[in-house]
Amino acid sequence: MADAALFLSDLALGVLLGCVFAVIAHGLNLIWGVAKVVNVAHGEFIMLGAYGAYFLNLWFGFNPLLSIPFDAAIGLGVGVLFYFGFLHRELRGKESMDLQSEMVTLVSTFGLSLVLINTAQKLWTPDNVGIPWSPGYVVFGPVQLPLGGLYVAIVSVSIIALSHVFLSKTYLGNAIRAHSQDIPAAQLVGINPTITASIGTAVGFGITMVGGALLTVWLPTGIFPAMGNLYAPISFVIVVLGGPGKMWGSLVGGLTLGVIINVGQLFLGNNLSLAEAAAFLILIPVLLLRPEGILR
Amino acid sequence: MLQLEGIDAGYAGTQVLWDVALEAKQGAMTVIVGPNGAGKSTVLKVINGLLRPTRGKVLFQGNDITRRPAHERTEAGISSCPEGRRLFPQLTVEANLRLGAYAKRARGSADETLEYVYRLFPRLRERAHLKTIRLSGGEQQMVGIGRALMAKPLLLILDEPSLGLAPKTVSEIFQKVRELREGGLTLLLVEQNAYQALRIADFGYVMQEGRIVNAGPPDRLLDLEDLRKAYFAIP
Fold first, then answer.
1. pLDDT (tens digit, 9 = 90+) per residue, A59-80?
2. Domains of chain B and CATH, by start
3. Residue A188: which of B80, B95, B98 has the nearest Cβ?
4. A254 CA to chain B: closest CA distance, Å?
5. Is A91 on the interface with B (CB under 8 A)?
6. 3-state secondary structure of B191
């Protein structure tokens, strides 16, 4: 019986954690889909979002939920800068990414990742910090859930639902989706590709940094400059699992990974690295059987 | 309504068009015919703004639009259904059509135009909530033309609307194109299917190896002995 309770509890925690994973992957998915850029520095923007939440807590006593609008605003700004400072020159006038642009963006986002990690280590030391926020627990039968994780999961699902509404119900959102599917066709219906690509990139960065802030709830002492190395690969796996360009795919992939990592630890002797390895292993059957992602 | 003057254009250093000049007159259907690889689609890209010419001018309603980007040309009233249709595969028929009315000049009346497109192609109303990737070739062509019409064009450009379609569907599509022309729309049509295209046209251009080699009323073009042999495969 005790084992069953432990399993249920890990399952529930996995679902809650998976919701946050989904948000982080959602940001990557948007940047990938709209700007056609594989952002190797993705993990570092998660890290910046987490530090944003940390400093807002340190200076003003904000809890991670209150830091969302600030992280979102910073993320949008960073996204616009990233697009116009760097991507625009590479993407302008192109129907799709050619090999050279792909190499340029891969190498330079890799470089950006190193710069961000090292700058963060210089500014904030390589040591772990954390946000002391524990709003208590709620008990469902044999399962005890942290309220912080529950709030964050609700916010996460709302963010994904909101972005879904934006992308499918508004002219601008539909234009962004059209751009991600066929750039010349989007231009021919009158869509300015610079506007859709820059806004899509900005929203992607905003969501990524908010994801970093939400993640801090699960990291009471685990914010550090190189933390992106842990969460960027998870994001890539989720996007591939859910199917690139599919917005609900992020949620399905995120939940899958959250559950596998949490429940996996139960069966793999509390070994986090092994559980993460298991999460990557499921990519192999998925890529073999459904290369377009779990969702149709 | 539209004039090209002395257009040279190409891709990545390879010149495809040499000194192309043509005109699409208000209220008429102009057709460009010619064999595969003659540069017909490239001419349309120069007109809709997806390709910038290396020399020459594009004039629309008397304004020089040579350097205007593609999305601004749609806003000005040039609307294209490109080669291969290029629908948004993951969006529904209706979402594709509504995106056609993205231009500000068309957005306000999107509901009425959508109703007009559904009356023109009743089958699209039945398929409204399907992703376009699930449609037949003919239905996809209807969505392509419908999406271009949603922009309330002054000039409608169709690139090879018969490409890859069954003969019966081709006749159906040509019938709709003729209806549009009779409704007073200015059309510019590119076709490999020269015989069928010229039969419904008001004026024709013949392209070969990146140049315009003949122009005139369709019946005269259809009578040219060498054209019949070269392009229409009629002995």
1. 999 999 999 999 999 999 999 9
2. 1-74+188-235 (3.40.50.300)
3. B80
4. 22
5. no
6. strand
